[in-house]
Specification:
alpha/beta; 5 strands; single chain; 45% helix; 224 residues; 10 helices; five-stranded parallel sheet
Length: 224
């Protein structure tokens, strides 16, 4: 007998959650053992399942990318499901750590196969997911170091150089150095930053800033 795979589901549609439980009850090796209508609701529960089926748009004003990142940070493996595909969010949630994407129009066999593959440690690519990933027409993004990334995001959100330095535990001069390096990398890919406001534009264009800023001491001194 195949080992039982436990999954949790987060969706704002209660009828869908109940229907999914009934639907999966007919699959011998998969059980829906926890449901919630928000990420916060699921995290407030004691959940044994490590795979989460997450609705892309929960309609509770939460950010889909932050929802994925929060679940991944907590130790869950996320499969994104949706009825209306949104290209920008499908791309961004994939980058945030979602391992698979399944359209709600898919049948039970497709969903069950994806769940089994994820339980084995794979990142299965459905036809729909491959199609949307193939339509990634976002502008070229530079390869930023983790520290450049954090400095750019903090500064792009309106923090001063001194405030960024205090937040990250580095000197103001080091902040300026990281900003100059990030600025040069954007120029190198044909997307120059010519004024203060364009720092914020770049982080929005590239779906950056979904991560929480790390506090002082999270990087070795040589990297600061």
């Amino acid at each position: 007998m195949e080992p039982l795979i436990e999954v949790a589901a987060i969706d704002n549609d209660q009828m869908l959650l109940e229907g999914m439980a009934t639907w999966l009850a007919s699959v011998p090796d998969i059980r829906l053992t926890a449901t919630a209508r928000s990420v916060a609701d699921l995290l407030s529960q004691t959940v044994t399942a490590r795979i989460v089926l997450l609705d892309l748009n929960l309609e509770d004003f939460t950010d889909p990318v932050e929802n994925v990142a929060t679940l991944v940070d907590t130790g869950f493996t996320v499969i994104v499901i949706t009825v209306v595909p949104d290209l920008s969010y499908i791309l961004a949630t994939t980058e945030a750590g979602a391992v698979a994407y399944v359209a709600k129009t898919a049948n039970l066999t497709v969903l069950a196969d994806v769940i089994r593959a994820v339980a084995r440690g794979d990142s299965p690519l459905t036809i729909e997911h491959a199609f949307w990933l193939g339509r990634d027409n976002r502008p070229d993004r530079p390869e930023l170091t983790p520290r450049e990334h954090e400095v750019l995001v903090a500064y792009g959100r309106g923090m001063t150089v001194d405030a960024v330095g205090r937040q990250l535990g580095i000197a103001a001069g080091t902040v300026r150095t990281h900003l100059e390096r990030a600025k040069q990398k954007y120029a190198d890919v044909g997307r120059p930053i010519r004024h203060r406001g364009q720092y914020g534009e770049r982080i929005r264009e590239d779906s950056l800033g979904r991560e929480r800023l790390r506090g002082p001491g999270r990087y070795p001194p040589a990297g600061g």
